[in-house]
Each structure stands twice: as C-alpha cells, then as structure tokens.
Amino acid sequence: MANIKVDQSHCNFHLSNWLSRHHWDILFTDAGRVSRGGTGSQGSCLKIFEEESLPIPDIVAYKGEKLIFIEIDSNFGKAKPSLEKYDTQKSLIIKRFISDLSLALSNTSLYLGFCRTGIVQDSRKYLEKETVANGSIDFWIYFEAPRVPVLYWPNDGVGK
Amino acid sequence: MSELQKSLVLWAESPEEARRFLHIASSRVDVLNINQIFVAKKSPRSRFNKYISGEYYITSNDQAVDVYDETITAPQGITSLVQWCTCDIMLSIGDIPCVVIEDTTHIVRMNLYQRFPRLARASSLKVPSLILQGTRGLDFQRRGDCWALYRYLQSFDAIAKIHPDCPSIPIWYEPTPEQELAAQSKSIEYITAIVTQDNERIQAQRHEVLTHIRRLLENGVRGFIPPNIPSINHDGTEVVIRIGAKPDKKSWRTKGSGQMDPYIGMILAAKYIYCYDTDGRKIKPLVVEFSYLPKDFWFFRDRQSTALYKRLPFEFADEVRFLG
Fold it and tell me: What residues of B are in contact with residue A40 (Cβ under 8 Å)?
C-alpha cells in the first residue's frame, strides 16, 4: 500500500491546521510556492523578513502575547542557522511585529520551534537526543503518524 | 453526485497549488467538486520535471492533498499541456483537459513573461486558460512599472489574436485583500462557466477582459505607453531578440536554468507580439541571437534533454545564432 509523504509541505499544512484548531492565529506560512507574498498578515510578515534580511520561517503564529516562529526540516542542522538568526534578532523582530501587525507583545514574546519532517518512530529517544543536543530552542514538533503533529514544549505545558 | 463531478480531475504543480485552488474554489463546490487530485511535484521545492513524461503523484483527494509515494501516468492531453513547463492547475473532465489556471501574487519586471509559455501552450492546444495575477512588485506611481504591466498585457492581446477561439485571460489585481478577493471570485466564475460549458458567460467574460486590455494598450497604463524593449528589434524583415548572457557566469553550471530564466518567456512572448499580424497570421521569422555565447555553447548541447531551458529556445525560435 502506498505511503503518505510526510515532507515539508505535509508538515506545514497539518501543523498550521493543528495550531489553528488550538486557537493560534496563523500569520504566515511559507508554502514554498514561487510567490510567497499575498495580502493581509502574510504580506506584512514577508515585508518584515525581506526588509530586515531575515530568513523566511516556515510558520509564524500568534496567541495570547506569544509569537512563534517554526522551522520545518529533515534535521535540526538545516534549520539551525535560521533559528540562530531569529534568536539574535529577537528584539528587532518583536518591535517590527508590534509596529507592523499591531500585536500585543512583550520583550520575551518570541518563541522558536523546530518541526522534523518524516515519521519519528521512537519519540522518547528522539526528544532526549534533540533536547540535549539542541536545547537552545523552545519547542519541538514531530509526526508519529501522517497528519498528526505532536508538540513538545517542555517549559510551557505543551503550548496551550 | 452528478456525472460531471464524478469525473472532474485536478492536476496541480504541487500540493500547495492544489490546496490554494481548492480554497479559492470552495465558494463553488457545487460545480467544482473535485473527484481526484494528482500533483506533478511532491512538494513545491522539488526540482524534478518527470511530469514531462506524464508522471504524477497520487494524493488523498481531499483538502489536505496528502501526497502518496505512488505515481500514475497522466493522460496524453495533460502531458501535452506541460511540455513548456508545468501549469499551476489543470482541470480535466475525465482524460480531457478543460481549463488551465495560473495563480501568482507577484509581477517581476525582469521576468514579465515567466508564465507566458504555459498559457500560450494551452491556447495552442485549444484549452482555455486564465491567470490570477497579483501586481505585488509593481508600483503604479512609477512610469517603468506602468510600462511593465503594459508589456505584460501585450502578450495576452497577442494570444487572443493568434488563438481567437481560445484566448488566455489575465485577471489582475492590486495587492489589497478586497481586490484579491474580487479577482478570485471573477476567476472562479470564469472557471465555472468553462466547466459547465456556459458559452454565453465564457464569451461575456472574455469580451470584458480583452476589451479592457485593448483600451489600456491604446491609451497606456495610467497614460504611459512604453518604448520598445531595447533587446528586441522588430523593425526589419525578421524579429531579433538579443540575449546578452555571458559564457563565464557561474550560474550556467550551478542552476538548472543557467542564465536563461528570464529569456524563455520573453522569446515566446516576442514571437507572439511581433511575428504575427493583427489577423493572427505569421509574417516574420523569430531569430534569437546570443551576443556573447560561442557556437555550440556546452549548455545547449543536449537538446533532447528534458531540461526546458536547454530545449525551448530552439523550439520557439525559427533560428538561433551564437555570435560570441
């Protein structure tokens, strides 16, 4: 029987849907189409990334004074440079999101997450390894089965 | 479910294009109730072009458009449409393509005709098409950007003259939520008319758009009519496009498109705009001149290749000259 490809596109779509169902406002998704822009928050976010020479995150979402940037990739190493860049530019990013999108954010509002593509067979082992090796980010997302993302946010009660 | 809905098939470039189309079309799900969805690329970042030989991925056939690792061979009508690059969306009724749709938010001044070959291909195969075209990237306060839209629209006027029974319709909008929604709605109305074979509505929408284009071409976009593009000479007995790409550029080796990215569309658009008379008869040959590339430049040696950028200049032009 054919298998579903749990790739970047799959993860982006299902994770965005999952976040929406959990009352996050999706401000931006990088669908990987030639034209990432658009109207509304999608266009406003892209303008910020382009004007500030920032890498383009895969998902940007907002809920209750929290702003999250998520990078989706097959391994953390590929996402690390972008995540490090967001980390060093946190105050600038927050400032721009307050001014351009009128969000209610504080100085510590930006949280960074990594979503791994593919199926994670042994989530305990995966998280043990990732959180030790790459503990500089706030949360991890993985898929144990197609369509169903799992969020692990150790210091935040699973991001609720 | 009606017979039509049982057989309506969506062929998309990638799952993203399919999802966006399904979202836009959700207002007319009564007619555009897609029964099967196939995608040419498993993700938008894929660089493969196996679609040229008809390879399409099976999907979950729902709003999620989850892609399976199994492929099918597309019907001949679909494969023919993508020989000049894959289209964002194609709808077919059974195996027979009925409409091609391109959807993009940006116009890039340096690559105005990027999507033109796919639309021209559709018209040449008698498949109607439309492009939902945002104008992000252009600032109509600037004369050069008004010129850009004018030149872009010239290519659609040309398609309509050469293929009067099957023109391609641009539905363009300035990047505001209101204008985008209105343009989406207009596009879906046109697609619905095509799928349901409502000829009266099809003709009315075509007439409205083409009349608008011809008015703009007569009066200019915001009054601005551009001069000729300097690299295209159409005054003589032949139309000559001069391509100034240099042979020593790294991108010939590092990119699949080499230095050809903006030129493929421009070559075909120039052919449509300048090589035909107002009745759609071909009156001049098209010559592509590479000003700096030597004869037998290595990039173009493998013309049987599936790489479109190596093949299409020779397919579009009547003659290709290497002057380097």
Answer: 177
Concatenate the DSSP letters of all residues of B76-95 into one string.
HHHHHHTTTS--SEEEEETT
Is beta strand A139-145 parallel, antiparallel or unpaired with respect to A148-152? antiparallel
For the segment B26-54, the average pLDDT, to the nearest whole number, is 85
* Residue in A with minimal Cα distance to B134: A38
How far apart are the C-alpha atoms of B93 and B6, rounded to whole Å?
A: 9
Among A8, A33, A39, select the one facing B17 at the smallest CB separation.
Answer: A33
**What Å distances lie between residue B173 and A32, B84, B101, B158, B306, CA to CA?**
22, 26, 16, 21, 34
Does A8 touch chain B if contact means CB atoms closer than 8 Å?
A: yes
pLDDT tens track for B167-190:
999 999 998 889 999 999 999 999
Which residues have C-beta within 8 Å of that of residue B82, sequence separation ≥ 6? B40, B51, B52, B90, B118
From residue B11, alpha-carbon distances to A129, B34, B55, B86, B292 in Å are 41, 10, 11, 10, 40
Q: What is the pTM of this model?
A: 0.90
Under a CB-based contact definition with an 8 Å cutoff, are residues B312 and B279 in contact? Answer: no
Amino acid at A108: T
Measure the CA–CA gap between B151 and B31, rounded to whole angstroms: 35
Q: State how far the Cα of B8 lies from the Cα of A70, in Å rounded to an integer.
A: 36
User: CB distance from B47 to chain A under 8 Å?
Assistant: no
What pLDDT digit, counting tens, does each position of B90-114 carry?
Answer: 999 999 999 999 999 889 888 899 9
- Determine the residue of chain B that is closest to A9 in CA distance: B43
Distances (CA, A) of B281 to B13, B229, B237, B272: 33, 23, 15, 10
Give which of B209, B90, B114 is closest to A35, Cα–Cα: B114
Which residues, numbered 127 to 146 in chain B, qualify as contacts with chain A under a Cβ-Cβ cut-off of 8 Å? 134, 136
- Residue B130 is classified by DSSP as E
Q: What's the gap in Å between the CA of A146 and the closest CA on chain B?
A: 9
Q: A43 contacts in B (CB within 8 Å)?
A: 136, 175
Token duo for residue A95: 């400032």
Q: Say which residue the tokens 């020479």 belong to.
A: A53
> pLDDT digits over A4-31, tens only?
999 999 999 999 999 999 999 999 998 7
| Chain B CB within 8 Å of residue A34 CB | yes
What is the number of H-type helices and E-type strands within chain A? 5, 6
Looking at the complex, does the CB of residue B76 fall below 8 Å from at least one CB of chain A?
Answer: no
Residue B303's contacts (CB-CB under 8 Å, 6 or more residues apart) are B310, B311, B314
* Contact across the interface for A2 and B68, Cβ inside 8 Å: yes
